[in-house]
Amino acid sequence: MYARDGTMDSHNNPTNKSKTGKWKACRFILGNECCERLTYYGMSTNLVNYLQIRLNQGNVTASNNVTNWSGTCYITPLIGAFLADAYFDRNWGMTLLTMTTSDEGINPSCDENGCDPTKSQVVVCFLALYLIALGTGGIKLCFSSFGGDQFDANDEAERKKKSSFFNWFYLSINVGALSHPHPATKTQH
């Protein structure tokens, strides 16, 4: 009934396997990973257009900025786990980015002649993007291992489920990545 691998609950008692872990928690991990990939690829697809239209960047500059941001998202796992957990919250960056598209003071004003972003609006937009990159680096390191920790390594049946979890985990990444063009671009229009 209790985990044999020494896992403790939040009250420092042995973990009751019938009440915690396994697929109960993994459903949320798999769903979150799928949605994270869907939003990442959907946002990166539309980001060049946003930078061109709303921030008046040329095609080369906007593409270069998106490439730099994307590369940062993939390199920050090397340093992001410590910084994101100790100082920042990934949701804070997403909230700030959402504000750059919805808050009148942060969202560049546009008319029939185009958009006219201020320097501070551009800075806030890029600050939000790089906070998301930092948060991505913080979560990527531990998400798959956190899912694997839901299964007791000393229980043969759970060890097989753990292997199955990693198959489902990588499937959810690919489903999110492959399904991004349709819903994300339809939402933009």
What does this protein look like?
- The chain has 7 helices and 2 strands; from the N terminus they run ααααββααα.
- With 189 residues, the protein is mainly alpha-helical.
- Helix 1 (22-54) runs parallel beside helix 6.
- The longest helix is centred in the N-terminal third of the chain and has 33 residues, at 22-54.
Q: Can you give me a brief rundown of this structure?
A:
The protein is mainly alpha-helical and 189 residues long. It has seven helices and two strands; from the N terminus they run ααααββααα.
Largest sheet at a glance? Answer: 2 strands, antiparallel
How far apart are the first and last residues' alpha carbons, in Å?
52 Å
Helix content: 55-70%
> What coarse outline follows from CA principal-axis ratios?
elongated
Q: How is the quaternary structure best described?
A: single chain
Walk across the major sheet and give the strand order.
Answer: 1-2
Helix and strand content put the structural class at mainly alpha
The whole-angstrom Rg is: 20 Å
Count the beta strands. Answer: 2
The averaged pLDDT comes out at 76
Tell me the layout of helices and strands.
Blueprint (H helix, E strand, L loop, with lengths): L21 H33 L4 H17 L4 H7 L3 H13 L6 E3 L2 E3 L2 H30 L7 H23 L2 H8 L1
Antiparallel strand pairs: 1-2
Helix pairs in contact: 1-2, 1-6, 1-7, 2-5, 3-5, 4-5
